[in-house]
Write a structure and sequence with these properties.
Layout: H1 5-20, H2 29-39, H3 60-64, H4 84-89, H5 99-102, H6 104-155, H7 161-170, H8 173-211, H9 214-231, H10 254-262, H11 267-274, E1 281-282, E2 287-288, E3 292-298, H12 305-310, H13 312-319, E4 326-330, E5 338-344, E6 370-374, E7 380-383, E8 389-393, H14 400-412, E9 418-423, H15 431-437, E10 440-443, H16 447-473, H17 486-490, E11 499-504, H18 507-510, H19 516-529, E12 535-541, H20 551-554, E13 559-562, H21 568-575, E14 596-601, E15 604-611, H22 616-633, H23 655-662, E16 669-671, H24 672-682, H25 684-687, H26 692-699, E17 707-713, E18 716-724, H27 725-741
Parallel strand pairs: 8-12, 8-13, 9-10, 9-11, 11-12
Antiparallel strand pairs: 1-3, 2-3, 3-5, 4-5, 6-7, 6-15, 13-14, 14-15, 16-18, 17-18
Helix pairs in contact: 6-9, 7-8, 10-13, 14-22, 15-22, 16-19, 23-27
């Protein structure tokens, strides 16, 4: 038997052994925790020097022991943070009145949709009302039979018969007698009600037949027949069909959102959901937002909105919605893990868009915003064509040319605008605008088409310089911001009307072996300096790379439209450097998303826009209306009037060959002033008035630079800029070799 003192004896022995051990010490844990918290330095920083001098409160034993833990988090009671007022100041207030209700155009559009919906329904049913009446009349005998049979079954208390039969099967006499007495009472009462109703009905019918006018008799008979027809209808053969088939979209719930995010295969989300957490923090209720649902919240730490956008197809699968209905977006003023998920009721490419206000009537002012498309929610997106240079990029057959033509139609509806249109694809897609209203227009990529465009661009560069001088000479009170305004554009004497240049397949220009570099130089100048002087350049290409869109042009374009592209390089060439990394990815568009693009401009971040679709007949109609506006304003000119520009001999000469002709082989280097003097003697109509600076500028597109040339004059060496004949020979050889290779 174990004695109670045995435990005490064992405890005393262990205590004695511990007291004799010099390396052991009994510590009161509560006191140790209090001492540690009390000694924590509130001013200590995590990046402070961990030496002895940096924290004198640490003991030598703590410094000697590298495993000693140092408290770096402040106690909860002492943690500093924004007060209540600070949190209120930083709070984000949601608008009391929804944004769509503040927009008059959106309110008008919504009202028109509702009115058209109910007007259609009323008209649909009104036209088919005779058919409905005939169906009800044919079903009236069946309804009468159902009514009489139902009345008789009710009067005979047939609904209680199964219970009475069950009592008979059980041979429960008492229960059967009780049910029988109850049935007899019901039958007497119901028979009385039926007889009274029958006499009342017959009396009313006789009174109507004898006393009522004909129209009331007809209405009464019709009402009875219709009622009997409704009673006789079949469940699988409705009398009235729906005038509008409404699409039923599943309501977006938190469970659906979490399920879809969990199906993406993102480790951080899956780990959180595996531990019983949501993996997504909702920061606002899921609400209706236009024709769809909006969910907003924070992703787990380390997960960005870009990760979700990359898996958009899997996200659509998880939501069980078409790909064109699912649009994950980042919020510019939030952290990169803040997701806004908008799920539409219909595919964006298939949803019916509101009627474009300019389709049938109206004009434009290029200095004011004009609607050119709608976002995912069906809201209008506007663009101001003035003060921009635009780049449009996409793979073939995605709506790039139609978008360019739409922008040119908007420009054409401003009668002040002078249009220069170039269809380098040569299919005539820009002819509705070019043939009717354009000042200069060409379709094709033949050599004479390129030379025509080059002459026009050279003239536009001179016009740019003239406009700059005019703007600089204007008083500050008239031109305070040193740029063209709508008021200045109205003054014909100044010649500052808007000029809009539209080029489809612009890569044909910049890759031309003879004029490509000069065309690139002029277009770069127009992109950089043109917007302030009222010159707008719109470039479209199906191959957005460094050759098709030179860096000087793509980097300075203030408006960018990117339809579907295939890779990151093309995406960033159109939308800007690092756009792909920020989650702005036109690669996510599907083949069916024609006309849908990312739009960067109007001072806002990238938005997804579906441009207005204007087919060729409607484009012809709009261009005809624009021509009438120009005829009324007296601004129709150039190609639209059948006038061709004067032939410029400067495009029919070969500058390099002419330089070789005036520099003999025994003169390897010649001063520039000597070269231009000889060139003027060779072709007076072309080179007369050229200066050494003009020669250097003309050689630059050919990749030839002037060099320092020393000559001995009166015993002294004089250095001036000149031409090295070997450079001219090499440039001609390279050019002709490339041409032969092509």
């Amino acid at each position: 038997m174990k004695h109670p003192d045995d435990d005490n004896e064992l405890f005393n022995r262990l205590e004695a052994e511990m007291s004799t051990d010099p390396g052991g010490e009994v510590v009161d844990l509560d006191k140790a925790r209090s001492a540690r918290i009390g000694s924590a330095d509130p001013t200590a920083r995590p990046d402070a020097d961990p030496s002895a001098d940096s924290n004198p409160s640490r003991s030598d034993a703590e410094l000697a022991d590298p495993t000693t833990r140092v408290t770096v988090d402040l106690p909860t009671a002492k943690a500093a943070g924004p007060g209540y007022l600070g949190r209120l100041l930083a709070a984000q207030r949601r608008p009391v009145v929804p944004l769509w209700l503040k927009s008059v155009p959106e309110l008008k559009t919504a009202t028109a949709w509702v009115a058209r919906h109910y007007a259609h329904s009323v008209g649909y049913h009104a036209l088919r009302s005779p058919v409905y009446a005939a169906r009800l009349t044919l079903q009236a005998p069946s309804g009468a039979a159902k009514f009489v049979g139902g009345t008789m079954r009710w009067a005979a208390d047939r609904e209680g018969e199964p219970v009475r039969l069950a009592a008979v099967r059980r041979e429960d006499a008492a229960e059967y007698l009780k049910l029988s007495r109850q049935r007899d009472g019901r039958v007497r009462l119901r028979a009385l009600v039926t007889v009274l109703a029958m006499f009342t009905g017959l009396g009313s019918a006789l009174a109507i037949y004898v006393l009522a006018p004909a129209w009331l008799q007809a209405v009464s008979v019709g009402a009875v027949v219709m009622a009997l027809g409704v009673a006789g209808r079949k469940a699988d053969a409705p009398v009235v069909h729906r005038a509008v088939e409404l699409r039923k979209a599943v309501k977006l719930t938190s469970d659906i959102v979490l399920r879809s995010l969990g199906s993406l295969g993102i480790p951080a989300i899956n780990q959180a959901q595996g531990k019983g957490r949501d993996g997504f923090e909702f920061t606002a209720p899921i609400t209706r937002d236009g024709p769809g649902w909006r969910a907003e919240g924070n992703l787990p730490y380390g997960v960005t909105v870009t990760d979700i956008i990359e898996r958009r197809e899997r996200l659509a699968s998880g939501l069980r919605r078409p790909l064109g209905c699912v649009w994950p977006e980042a919020v510019p003023d939030q952290h990169t893990g803040h997701l806004v998920l908008w799920v539409g009721d219909q595919d964006m490419s298939k949803a019916k868009k509101p009627a474009w206000p300019l389709l049938k009537s109206g004009s434009t002012d290029l200095f004011k915003p004009v609607a050119f498309g709608t976002d995912q929610r069906g809201r209008w997106v506007e663009i101001t064509l003035m003060y921009i240079a635009a780049v449009i990029g996409a793979i073939p057959r995605m709506g790039k040319t139609f978008l360019l033509r739409l922008l040119l139609l908007i420009a054409a509806l401003d009668p002040r605008a002078e249009l220069h249109t170039y269809d380098l694809k040569g299919t005539g897609d820009l002819d509705p605008v070019g043939e009717r209203v354009a000042h200069r227009h060409r379709a094709g990529d033949e050599e004479d088409d390129i030379e025509y465009a080059l002459r026009d661009l050279r003239a536009l560069r001179e016009e740019l310089r003239r406009r700059a001088k005019v703007i600089r000479s204007l008083p500050r009170d008239i031109c305070p911001e040193s740029k063209v305004t709508s008021e200045l554009a109205n003054k014909k004497s100044l010649g500052l009307h808007p000029i809009v240049i539209g080029v489809d397949e612009c890569q044909v220009w910049f890759e031309h072996e003879k004029y490509g570099k000069e065309l690139e130089e002029i277009c770069t100048d127009l992109v950089k300096r043109g917007p302030a002087t009222g010159i707008v350049l719109l470039l479209a290409t199906q191959r957005p790379d460094a050759k098709a869109l030179p860096t000087g042009i793509s980097a300075n374009a203030s408006a960018r439209f990117c339809l579907k592209v295939m890779g990151q390089l093309e995406n960033d060439m159109v939308l800007g450097t690092s756009a792909y990394k920020r989650g702005v990815r036109a690669t996510m568009f599907s083949w069916g998303d024609k006309g849908i693009h990312y739009f960067v401009g109007e001072g806002s971040d990238a938005r997804i826009v579906g441009s207005v679709y204007v087919d060729a007949p409607n484009a012809e109609s709009i261009a005809a209306r624009a021509r009438k506006l120009r005829e009324a304003a007296g601004t129709l000119s150039g190609h639209a009037l059948g006038e061709e520009p004067e032939t410029d001999a400067s495009t029919s000469y070969d500058l390099l060959a002419d330089i070789l002709a005036v520099i003999p082989a025994d003169e390897p280097k010649v001063w520039s002033e000597t070269v231009v003097s000889r060139l003027a003697e060779l072709r007076t109509d072309v080179y007369d008035g050229w200066t050494p600076e003009a020669l250097a500028s003309a050689l630059k597109p050919h990749g030839v630079s002037t060099v320092q040339v020393g000559r001995r004059v009166d015993g002294k060496v004089v250095n001036r800029r000149g031409v090295d004949r070997s450079h001219i020979v090499a440039s001609i050889a390279e050019r002709d070799g490339n041409r032969d290779a092509g």
